[in-house]
């Protein structure tokens, strides 16, 4: 008889209290490398299923992953939306479910928003670690939402930029972001002002049209492009996509979900995991784009880490 325990619920504040970039980053590097080896005993992760929520201008993404060797089985449910300017509704809502692969019972249901914010930013930081030019001094962030903040947090924890710039569509949002960052961030009046001369540019907007143009991007800069995760959505223009060496988290994901890749016709040179595995070079001296779509395996290792940390905290006297 299966005497499975009922699932534990680990909600936002608890996830926040146990998840740390210093633990997450090495697990994500390991997961990206495993994914790119395409060994089904390491990672089984289909391209996410996206169910259109047409009435609400959104999608529900289902992101199942199985890591047989590690005994990790999970799925994330993530709803993401194209929000009108001025909307106060969230752009991304997510829940991660962790299961026992042997019995199929649910071990934990956890908030997926902190996981999504932190793992996405951590993967962008890994892309920068691998691909930005040595001595990079200026970081520019386009967007001032949830991902902008998590990217600021991990990039400033992992690197020592001399200057951090931020841009968003409204002056108020830029000012609020600069205030909440508590100093050290310069607000910019245009995306061009933020991007010109920057060594690393992060695009974390809800835009469906290009916000970053190749003519503004310094030769040798690294761009981590996080938004525009539908085949007809863009954040980057054709000039940038065609002139850069393009990396992705998943080649299949990029070729089925990224408007920047599909509509520009740019070639995906390598996955980040290929660089981690040493099977493809890091073209640090060239202009590079990391196109992030987000992968289930990133959620799987993050959720397992949260579960392990949470369990050890709970069982401590
Ligand atoms: N690659 C990945 O793994 C993930 C990607 N995303 C995507 O990243 C993007 C940002 O997500 P969040 O920070 O959670 O959203 P958010 O709603 O918190 O922030 C979005 C930001 O983009 C700005 N924005 C919206 N429309 C714009 C436009 N037309 N032009 C310029 N700026 C615009 C907003 O003012 C805001 O600053 C979204 O596109 C989301 O779908 C989110 C999670 C994971
Ligand atoms: O991987 C994720 O999580 C997401 N990717 C693209 C859109 C929002 C969430």
Automatic annotation (TrEMBL):
Superkingdom in the source lineage: Eukaryota
EC number(s) recorded for this UniProt protein: 1.5.1.1, 1.5.1.25
Family matches, as InterPro entries: NAD(P)-bd_dom_sf (IPR036291), ODC_Mu_crystall (IPR003462), ODC_N (IPR023401)
Pfam families: OCD_Mu_crystall
Reaction(s) the record says it catalyses: (R)-lanthionine ketimine + NADPH + 2 H(+) = (3R,5R)-1,4-thiomorpholine-3,5-dicarboxylate + NADP(+); L-pipecolate + NADP(+) = Delta(1)-piperideine-2-carboxylate + NADPH + H(+); L-proline + NADP(+) = 1-pyrroline-2-carboxylate + NADPH + H(+); (3R)-1,4-thiomorpholine-3-carboxylate + NAD(+) = 3,4-dehydrothiomorpholine-3-carboxylate + NADH + 2 H(+)
An annotated GO cellular component: cytoplasm
BP GO terms, sorted: thyroid hormone metabolic process
GO molecular function: pyrroline-2-carboxylate reductase activity; thiomorpholine-carboxylate dehydrogenase activity; thyroid hormone binding
Subunit structure: Homodimer. Binds the thyroid hormone triiodothyronine (T3); T3 binding inhibits enzymatic activity.
Protein family according to the UniProt entry: Belongs to the ornithine cyclodeaminase/mu-crystallin family.
Protein name per UniProt: Ketimine reductase mu-crystallin
């Amino acid at each position: 008889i299966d005497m499975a325990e009922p699932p534990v619920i680990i909600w936002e504040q608890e996830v926040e209290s146990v998840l740390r970039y210093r633990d997450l980053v090495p697990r994500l590097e390991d997961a990206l490398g495993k994914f790119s080896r395409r060994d089904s005993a390491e990672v089984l992760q289909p391209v996410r299923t996206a169910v259109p929520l047409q009435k609400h201008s959104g999608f529900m993404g289902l992101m199942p992953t199985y890591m047989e060797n590690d005994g990790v089985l999970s799925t994330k449910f993530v709803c993401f939306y194209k929000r009108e300017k001025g909307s106060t509704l969230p752009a991304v809502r997510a829940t991660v479910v962790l299961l026992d692969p042997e019995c199929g019972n649910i071990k934990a249901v956890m908030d997926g928003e902190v996981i999504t914010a932190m793992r996405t930013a951590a993967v962008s930081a890994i892309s920068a670690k691998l691909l930005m030019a040595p001595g990079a001094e200026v970081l520019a962030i386009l967007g001032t939402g949830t991902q902008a903040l998590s990217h600021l947090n991990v990039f400033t924890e992992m690197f020592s930029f001399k200057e951090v710039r931020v841009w968003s569509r409204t002056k108020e949002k830029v000012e609020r972001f600069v205030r909440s960052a508590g100093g050290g961030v310069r607000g910019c009046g245009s995306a061009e002002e933020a991007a010109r001369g920057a060594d690393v540019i992060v695009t974390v907007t809800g835009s469906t049209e290009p916000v970053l143009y190749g003519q503004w991007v310094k030769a040798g800069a690294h761009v981590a492009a996080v938004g525009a995760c539908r085949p007809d959505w863009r954040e980057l223009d054709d000039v940038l996509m065609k002139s850069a060496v393009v990396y992705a988290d998943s080649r299949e994901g990029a070729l089925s979900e990224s408007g920047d890749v599909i509509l520009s016709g740019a070639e995906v040179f390598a996955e980040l995991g290929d660089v981690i595995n040493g099977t493809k070079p890091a073209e640090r001296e060239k202009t590079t784009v990391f196109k992030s779509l987000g992968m289930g395996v990133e959620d799987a290792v993050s959720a397992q880490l949260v579960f392990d940390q949470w369990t050890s905290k709970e069982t401590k006297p």
